[in-house]
Amino acid sequence: MSDDAAAVEESDSETDAATDETEPSDAAEATEESPAEDSTADNSAAATDKPTDNEPAAVEEATVDELVAHITDTDEELTEPATELRSRIESLEQAVAEKDAEIDELTEKLSRSRADFKNYKKRTKKQQEQLKERATEELVERLTPVRDNLVRALDQDDDADIRPGVESTLESFDRVLDEENVEFIAPEPGDAVDPERHEVMQRVDSDQPEGSIADVYQQGYAMAGKVLQPARVTVSSDS
Question: Is the distance from CB of 169 to CB of 149 less than 8 angstroms?
Answer without folding.
Answer: yes
